[in-house]
Specification:
globular, BirA Bifunctional Protein, domain 2, 10 strands, 3-stranded mixed beta sheet, 4 helices, alpha+beta
Length: 199
């Protein structure tokens, strides 16, 4: 486990974070890293996204990303975890990683006494048929970047301006609807503890 480092970056713009990830992947001294951060308000389109899934951006910036998946929203009060990992060093593959990330999210929610479920063919984690966490990864030259977002205590209204993950009418929820006084920092600490066991 000693070969993965955890970094807390605080609030950082989406484009800036993407630039930092790409620079890190190209670096000769690349090491496996997991980043924890929040983004200011932004809609991002994955490589599979159709622009018509943004119903009305309401002056929130829209950014074409290179991650997998559909359209999503990031904003304050949502924990974003980015995984900059070399598959060769970890002896794992994309499917296993997605499965492990779903288990990670479900395990965090279980610790907070929140029951969650998965939906076949729709990566992410759901509570009461509402999406609480999303997964969107990119794999390039044997390395992965991008990652997951977990809704903790945020303004969910912008999700109604889009078809989240390309699904019309998909409802979205967050941890604060089920557990009181859970901060971004609390979830980050829980995640780090669990990630040390996963990798």
């Amino acid at each position: 486990m000693s070969d993965i480092s955890f970094k807390s970056l605080g609030v950082i713009g989406y484009e800036e974070a993407l630039g930092k990830m790409k620079a890190r992947l190209e670096a000769e001294d690349f090491e496996n890293e997991i980043w924890f951060l929040e983004h200011p308000k932004i809609f991002t389109l994955g490589t599979a996204a159709k622009e018509e899934h943004i119903l009305d951006s309401k002056n929130i910036p829209v950014f074409q990303s290179d991650r997998g998946g559909e359209v999503t929203y990031h904003g304050p009060g949502q924990l974003v975890i980015y995984f900059l990992l070399d598959f060769k060093k970890l002896n794992t593959g994309p499917k296993t990683l997605v499965s492990n990330l779903q288990k990670l999210i479900q395990s965090i929610l279980k610790d907070l006494k929140i029951d969650s479920s998965l939906v076949e063919g729709a990566p992410g984690v759901y509570v009461d048929d509402k999406k609480i966490a999303s997964i969107g990864l990119r794999i390039s030259k044997g390395k992965t970047y991008h990652g997951i977002s977990i809704n903790i205590d945020m303004d969910l209204e912008p999700f109604t301006f889009i078809n989240p993950c390309g699904y019309k009418g998909l409802k979205v929820t967050q941890i604060s609807n089920y557990a009181n006084n859970v901060s971004i920092n609390d979830v980050e600490k829980l995640a780090i503890k669990k990630l040390e066991n996963i990798f």
